[in-house]
Amino acid sequence: MSRGIPEPKLTAVDAMIDKLTGAIFLFQIVVVVVLGIAGNVWKDTEARKLWYVMYPIEKPWYELLIIPLRFELLCSIMIPISIKVSLDLVKGLYAKFIDWDELMYDLETKTPSHATNTAISEDLGQVEYILTDKTGTLTENKMVFKRCCISGTYYGNESGDALKDISLLDAISGNTPDVIRFLMIMAICNTVVPVKCSTGNICYKAQSQDEEALVNAANLLHMSLTNKNGSVLDVNFNGRMIQYEILDILEFTSDRKRMSVVVKDLQNGVILLLTKGADEVILPYASHGQQVRIFFDAVEQYAQLGLRTLCFGCRELEDDEYRNWASLFKEANSTLIDREWKLAEVCQKLERDLKIIGVTAIEDRLQEGVTETIETLRKAGINFWMLTGDKQSTAIQIALSCNFISPEPKGQLLMITGKTVDEVLQSIERILLTIRITTSEPKEVAFVVDGWALEIALRYHKSEFTSLAILSRTAICCRTTPSQKAQLVALLKSCDYRTLAIGDGGNDVRMIQHADIGVGISGREGLQAARAADYSIGKFRFLKRLILVHGRYSYNRTAFLSQYSFYKSLLICFIQILFSLISGMSGSSLFNSFSLMAYNVFYTSIPVLTSVLDKDLSENTVMQNPQILFYCQAGRILNPSTFAGWFFRSLFHAVVVFMITVHAYSDEKCELEELSMVVLSGCIWLQAFVVVIETNSFTLVQHLAIWGNLVGFYIINYILSAIPSVGMYTIMFRLCRQPSYWITLFLIVALGMGPVLAIKYFRYTYRPSKINTLQQEERFHGGRILTIEECESQENPLEKDLSPVTIVHNKNRNPVYEPLLSDSPTATRRSLGTSINFDSFQPIQPRFFSSHLRNLKSN
């Protein structure tokens, strides 16, 4: 019912890598065509004049394809095939970091965090919308019976606990009929199973926490469900045993929003229909003439207190009426086509003309840390939607108590109401007009919609509802079904937002599966949500660390690893192209096959994989300054602009390596293999220093990987130089004894890294980003906590508008370089058009203004 077919998930980073790969492939085709034509032209004009080339005068037609195919082989490494393997490896480690995180271990339930999906960790750092369930997600899902209203009489209002209300206890002692019937519905209108505990007392096993709370409350009020033997229930009321036979169970569904049982009193043979459910599906079916205003008022009063409400009703059935209905119910229950719809139709025929008995109010407290988590993630620019099956008033009170919405005058709560298509449209248009009128006021705008109005809005006014959704910082959707939750996720995804859905029950599964990232809470409603989710955590508060720490680190590391993988492949490919310019455009390779294979597998892969341990800022600094997540959400670290920087860096380094080597050895009598080894050595040394300056924090593992890789390069080639049959015999022995070899390497590193260091120093010193500033303060101010305003000498518009942030010292931090973050003006927030600058995202602005800008994307 609530579980759908999970969709395959593609992260924003993977999508960007696919686009960059496509661009490189087109570039590769252009290079191959141009060089292939140039090679054939040179062969026909110049090569035939050279006696030592010995090209035949007569040639077959397919000889025109030989040189282009050679260049295709040379350029085939332009797209790094190993990137997918490397990414899968590091993503697996990201998932293990989440599993091993002791700060996300729930001591109460002994539940660790767990990453089921190992492929989408970097998407956690780009989340823009969080859609959350309420019960069991924001609250503890520990239900406690607090108050009730029976036949118009309120119990528990004065003491706050109906179980201690003297008037209710007196009514039970006096065998008041409606009170006894109310307790009977509490005790037997459920699917609870009573079992004997080790202490000898009766314990109850229930699928629903509401049912468990009601049965326990009935037990404390002397109406005890003691045994369930097949279809026979034993109920002990004040020492007197009463037996009921369950004839049929009309199960709860998210569409029906109620549950009923048909029971037979074995003492007098009376058949009863007992029903409980939401007020909107119980009170409208009251028997003709019964006054239900008092029950509406009770529901509203309890909802204003943030309590969960259920309405109770019953009806006595005639034998003939039940037999006729039971045959229809059995037929609908055995059908194979539209079974759920036919069952609901049959149940509706019986659940009518009810005598409303009363209303219950159950308390469900907020989890620890929910308010702080929502507040922190809001500072990170993340919007929140609450999708709940509870009553509107209850949801609003919970939202206010956990800082989900702000009270007046800071916040503005707008209602979408209506029962018809026109009424809902008028309500949406009125709210849109209100938002546009109040654009000058710094208010946080939120809207509330119930399930009926939401169904109409999604079906008939989707465009208007979408416009409203992107203008509002917060939404509260009440009385929603699992399918509606999934539709809301799909609506936000269609606007190109990265969504995260979090829930704890089976009715949240479809929402979790449809979102870009699904998070399940291992709660009291079982493990359905946790097993269907990409990530499972023990409490809602762990979501803050999951996003800000694991998500951000994963995104930064993946962005660097992917761009570096392209860089090292382009570097060696550009050198091959440069070599073709001095080799008659023949498509010959400068390197032997073993060197090319070892280049990707051994020489350059191991150092960069240690980026999985890199941290540009300490965890405490990241947690205390959630605003820096904006850089990840905007795609400032991996985008065409930053990739272009790596592209031209590889071209520059290729020119440096090749030109210095060729000129250094132009007057030397050396073999091609010797020249090839000098060029390869220059590439390895250059890339070692690239990894060094792009690393923010160093550990022993990283030092061993970077410098140990260099040592390994020479060990491998020393061994190969000692084998006569390999073709590299004595080459490394001779090179290492030549001063010119080491001088050449020094010049390559100096000229290759000098401009890169100069640019980074200039950016860090004169145009620092917020992350640069935090890195600097972590180094120079020790453990003292500072605000960004106290330490910035020069601010750009983005830093001026961001709220004050604090820093925490971390000893192992590179003081100067910020390799992962590009300040390119074209690196805008992903949901924006290219004409809108990233600096427009200011937390102090009305959220609806920035959200409106985000909808003006050109792609």
Automatic annotation (TrEMBL):
Amino acids binding ATP: D133, K134, T135, E211, F252, K276, R308, T388, G389, D390, R479, K485, N507, D508
UniProt main location, coarse: membrane
Record field: transmembrane: 20-42, 564-582, 594-613, 646-665, 677-693, 705-729, 741-762
Active site annotation, chain numbering: D133 (4-aspartylphosphate intermediate)
Annotated compartments: Membrane
Alphabetized InterPro entries for the sequence: ATPase_P-typ_cyto_dom_N, ATPase_P-typ_P_site, ATPase_P-typ_TM_dom_sf, HAD-like_sf, HAD_sf, P-type_ATPase_IV, P_typ_ATPase, P_typ_ATPase_c
Classification via Pfam families: Cation_ATPase, PhoLip_ATPase_C
Cofactors named for this entry: Mg(2+)
Entry's Gene Ontology molecular function annotations: ATP binding; ATP hydrolysis activity; ATPase-coupled intramembrane lipid transporter activity; magnesium ion binding
PROSITE patterns registered for this protein in UniProt: ATPASE_E1_E2
GO cellular component: plasma membrane
Domain of life the protein comes from: Eukaryota
UniProt-annotated binding residues for Mg(2+): D133, T135, D504, D508
Catalytic activity: ATP + H2O + phospholipidSide 1 = ADP + phosphate + phospholipidSide 2
Annotated protein name in UniProt: Phospholipid-transporting ATPase
